[in-house]
């Protein structure tokens, strides 16, 4: 199969160790998304965005400001490689595959065990949308359409009371 399809699986991340390597905008966006599902996130980078530094100061994220080491992946369930160094991202991918850790290399969809979906959340409803890494703008349009439909549904539900 040339274009792999990814199975949409909803998992409990609350007690899983998540490691994000990188401190830039992509890493920060991934962490922001993950924080909706867990507080067990370690971010490792010599430098990071102001937002990520603030998340570290407030205790939402365990921020380690140094280069990553292989031992940082001990007991990790999931690793996100979001550095601007493709050689480092490739090494992270290799280590994770050896160790049986789910990995997502942010700039290389061929090195992803999972994708970050577009997410819509309202109360207990969580909807994830992906275009299998091929068309991010289409996935975003679908997420926005679902958001509009869900909000219209809420308006209809409230008007019936």
Brief write-up:
It contains 4 helices and 7 strands. The chain has 161 residues and is of the alpha/beta class. The longest helix has 24 residues, at 136-159.
Give an overview of the whole structure.
It is a single chain. With 161 residues, this protein is an alpha/beta fold. It has 4 helices and 7 strands. The chain is globular. The N and C termini lie far apart (50 Å).
Classified in CATH, the superfamily of the largest domain is NAD(P)-binding Rossmann-like Domain
Number of strands: 7
Measured distance between first and last alpha carbons: 50 Å
Q: Indicate the CATH topology of the largest domain.
A: Rossmann fold
Please count the helical segments. Answer: 4
CATH-scheme architecture of the largest domain: 3-Layer(aba) Sandwich
Poorly predicted runs: none
Which whole number gives the mean pLDDT? Answer: 88
Shape: globular
Estimated structural class: alpha/beta
Q: Tell me, what is the CATH class of the largest domain?
A: Alpha Beta
Proportion of residues in β-strands:
15-25%
Radius of gyration from CA coordinates: 17 Å
Keywords: NAD, Oxidoreductase, Porphyrin biosynthesis
GO molecular function: ferrochelatase activity; precorrin-2 dehydrogenase activity
InterPro entries: Met8-like (IPR028161), NAD(P)-bd_dom_sf (IPR036291), Sirohaem_synthase_N (IPR006367)
Pathway: Porphyrin-containing compound metabolism; siroheme biosynthesis; sirohydrochlorin from precorrin-2: step 1/1
């Amino acid at each position: 199969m040339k274009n792999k399809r990814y199975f949409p699986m909803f998992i409990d991340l609350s007690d899983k160790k998540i490691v994000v390597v990188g401190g830039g905008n992509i890493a920060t966006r991934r962490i922001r998304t993950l924080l909706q599902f867990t507080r067990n996130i370690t971010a490792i980078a010599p430098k990071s965005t102001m937002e990520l530094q603030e998340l570290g100061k407030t205790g939402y994220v365990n921020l380690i400001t140094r280069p990553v080491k292989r031992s940082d992946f001990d007991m990790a369930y999931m690793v996100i490689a979001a550095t601007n160094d493709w050689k480092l991202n490739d090494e992270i991918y290799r280590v994770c595959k050896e160790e049986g850790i789910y990995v997502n290399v942010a700039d290389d969809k061929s090195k992803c065990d999972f994708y970050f979906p577009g997410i819509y959340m309202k109360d207990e409803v969580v909807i994830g949308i992906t275009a299998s890494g091929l068309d991010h703008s289409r996935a975003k349009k679908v997420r926005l359409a679902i958001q509009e439909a869900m909000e219209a549904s809420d308006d209809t539900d409230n008007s019936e009371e």
